[in-house]
Amino acid sequence: MTQLVLFNSLTRQLEPFSPVHEGEARVYTCGPTVYNYPHIGNMRAYVFADILGRTLSARGLKLTHVINITDVGHLTDDADAGEDKMEKMAAQRAQSIWDIAKHYTEAYWADVKALNIRAPAHWSVATDYIDDMLAFAKSIAAEHCYELDSGLYFDVSTVADYGRLARAVTEEGEGRIEAVEGKRNAADFAIWRKTPLGETRQMEWDSPWGRGAPGWHLECSVMSGKLLGFPFDIHTGGIDHREIHHPNEIAQNQAFCGCGSLTETANSGARVWMHNNFLVERSGKMSKSSGEFLRLQLLIDKGFHPLAYRMMCLQAHYRSELEFSWEGLEAALTRLKRMLIAVEALKAKLDELPETPEDGWTFAEARGEVGGTFIPFLGRFESAVEDDLNTPQALTVLEEVLAQKKLDPAHKAQVIAAMDAVLGLDLLTVTRADLRIRPKLATITAADIDELLARRKTARAEKDFATSDALRDELAAQGVEVMDGDPLAWEWRL
Predict the structure, then answer these.
(1) What residue spans of 273-305 are helical by DSSP H?
(2) Contacting residues for 351 by C-beta, under 8 A, at least 6 apart
(3) Tens of pLDDT along 425-439?
């Protein structure tokens, strides 16, 4: 078996992965704040975490993955300032904050399912852990915290190496942190916020420091420690969490565990911290304040299957910036279609598809099943994903397998199943016809398309290319993409 190597943001190095508990992998992923729909940049983090989890499973490790749902405590400025996002949205919508949380949690789960992201072992909802948060805060308050009129604050000078994950708190970074009169250090942060006098929150609880609500950072320390135990294996999140949120989590973990310097990475609460880079969109529609921001449903409304976006994410390394464009998404969809054309040709040669174990194939199981011809391909694929989740290279190896001719089709299907157990493109289940999604604004009917395509086919047979081109242009003007030589003749989109 090859060695899984992962980039640890805490050390800024590639490191061999060694689980804390033999035969297990325990992973915590910072989940959504459910005050609005997630945009596709948010969802890149969960595609990345899914690939990580699938890779750990493929190594035969028992995976325990936790993704939290933040329904309280996350402020409108990630740098620990502003209003609570949940309270603000509830006030804007004149709705119960609990109804807001339920609606957007279910919307997030729908996106997770659409992107073929495996459900974690635990969806941990912040408000289910208030008592645990109070107990955690009480245990560290005397030695690491102090009280101000606005709440209980963590003194970052009481732990070693604060800010190492972010590579120190720069002057620019300090400028992003809430300025509160009385704070001992600019980077100190609230772990419990008191409800201001004369105000009432929809979500507030009694505490030794007054009625109020927990801080965002406290939630993740409590839920990760409670469900996975300190230290656990891997903590993941978007790169935006690397500068403030995760350093604050680490400080709390050090305080709770009585840990010392971060030269021992396990003192941070997790042995490995991993961060995916940004999805960049040049028009500014990645921001949720932009109105029609880029959420997964918008992609579907424009005729793109969600797996095209998953493919787009896999085509870039998770630590690289990924630029979103509609042309890039179309190219990813085309690549996925080509894969499915090859899979459908393979299926035609099989009496039945290979049985896949409930948790997917492990690399070891696959090597025992696919026969010698495909072992080198499987080895190269395994090496790619175990080289810090190099999915672009892994996709290339998969395409080489799909292109192989005159090899045992049953073994070929098994190796595709093993590779797709990691990539999660659902290649043996989804069909090319499934990728055809009617754009929301499409007005042309299927009957109209068939009639125009039939006329165009006749014109081409009669070598009347002027009419053929005119009909192609007419179809294109109504959003129909014509693929000459495609016997199905159904490809169309806005």
Answers:
(1) 296-301
(2) none
(3) 999 999 988 887 877
C-alpha distances (whole Å) from 431 to each of 3, 340, 415, 434 are 34, 6, 18, 5
| Peptide linkage before 231 cis (omega within 30 of 0) | yes
Give CA 486 to chain center in angstroms. Answer: 34
Contacts of 33 (CB under 8 A, 6+ apart): 70, 71, 74, 85, 86, 216
- Structure letter (DSSP) for residue 388: T
C-beta of residue 305 within 8 angstroms of C-beta of residue 434: yes
Q: How far apart are CA 31 and CA 173, in angstroms?
A: 23
Question: For residue 214, is the peptide bond before it cis, meaning its omega torsion is within 30 degrees of 0?
Answer: no
Instruction: Supply the DSSP symbol for 468.
Output: H
Nearest one of 49, 85, 54, 47 to 66, comparing CA atoms: 49
374 with 401: CB under 8 angstroms? yes
What's the pLDDT tens digit per position in 35-90?
999 999 999 999 999 999 999 999 999 999 999 999 998 887 776 778 889 999 99
Angle at 131 between CA 128 and CA 137, to 5 degrees: 120
Strand partners, 232: 270
Number of H helices, E strands in the chain: 16, 15
| CB-based contacts of 207, cutoff 8 Å, min separation 6 | 134, 137, 152, 192
Q: Which residues of 119-131 are buried (b: 16+ CB within 10 A; e: fewer)?
A: ebbbbbbbbebbe
pTM of the model: 0.91
Given CA atoms 223, 227, 231, 232 in this order, what sign does their dihedral have?
Answer: negative
Cβ-based neighbours of 352, under 8 Å, separated by 6 or more: none
Each residue of 11-26: pLDDT tens digit? 999 999 999 999 999 9
